[in-house]
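To: structure subgroup
Subject: Chain for Friday's discussion

All,

I'm putting the inputs and outputs inline so they're searchable in the archive.
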Amino acid sequence: MTEDDAIRRALEYASSIGITPAGDVEAQYFNLERLDALATVCPDDMVETYHSVRSRFRSHWAVTIPLMKAPGTVASPASAVVQVFDTGEATLLDSL
């Protein structure tokens, strides 16, 4: 799946759940190589958790979609992140 395909799929999914983009989206690809690179600074007490995540990890695009400001609310930067897997499956990433 290309970056353009992932963005198109993320925008379709966002639209289907009522999310309206407020600007340009950003896409990043995460695979095991990138996950391993990010984990080089993993604290010792998190290594077991990292290995658990790694064993279930699926490569995907993370597409960040800036959100429209709701009428009557204070302006603040807000976005939604849609994960798009190579299969075309898309899901909204829960915020922390």
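Points worth raising on Friday:
Helices lie at 3-16, 32-38, 47-56.
The CA atoms of residues 80 and 95 lie 8 Å apart.

D.
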